[in-house]
Amino acid sequence: MARRQRQAMVVHGLDQLFEALGDQKAAVRKAQGPALRAAGAVVETEAKQLVPVDTGTLRDAIVVDAIRRGGVVVAVEVGPTIPPAFHAHLVEFGTDRGSPAQPFMRPAWDTRKKEALDAAKTILREAIRNGL
């Protein structure tokens, strides 16, 4: 499996939500993966717009990766796959040899986190309303 420089998104409180939902629990569990992926896609799109492009390798390596536990998507990670983007951290943070930082992952999260969370909430809300 490829290593990543990751920006993780984890939704806390889902266990309490599932407890409160009763019969709707299955619908929300089923929608949890698509909701987290939708949130990740918002950050992925922004990161790809912010990343400096030379060859395009770094931009093209930014992906959303689902983290599963027990077959259920419990989180997503957004970031470049290493390889081919072995230099992602050097771009994000700069080097001590004079290459300035050109952050793209953190600003992507900082500027789009509300939109990402809204995307997840929309999918979860629909799942609750429709009972999937």
Q: What composes the largest sheet?
A: 4 strands, antiparallel
Rounded to the nearest angstrom, the radius of gyration is 17 Å
User: How confident is the prediction overall: mean pLDDT?
Assistant: 87
**How many domain modules?**
1
Number of helices: 5
* H-E string: EEHHHEEHH
Structural class: alpha+beta
Q: Shape from CA axes?
A: elongated
Distance between the termini: 33 Å
Helix content estimate = 40-55%
In terms of DSSP E residues, the strand content is 15-25%
Number of β-strand runs: 4
Low-pLDDT parts are none
Short description:
It is built from five helices and four strands; from the N terminus they run ββαααββαα.
Give a verbal description of the structure:
With 132 residues, the chain is an alpha+beta fold. It is 54% helix and 19% strand. It is built from five helices and four strands; from the N terminus they run ββαααββαα. Strands 1, 2, 3 and 4 form a four-stranded antiparallel beta sheet that branches. A hairpin with a 2-residue loop joins β3 (62-69) and β4 (72-82). α2 (25-50) runs antiparallel to α5. The longest helix is centred in the N-terminal third of the chain and has 26 residues, at 25-50. 27% of the residues are buried.
Q: What features would you highlight for this structure?
A:
4 strands, 4-stranded antiparallel beta sheet, 132 residues, alpha+beta
Break the fold down into its secondary structure elements and pairings.
Layout: E1 3-4, E2 7-10, H1 14-21, H2 25-50, H3 57-61, E3 62-69, E4 72-82, H4 88-93, H5 105-130
Helix pairs in contact: 1-2, 2-5
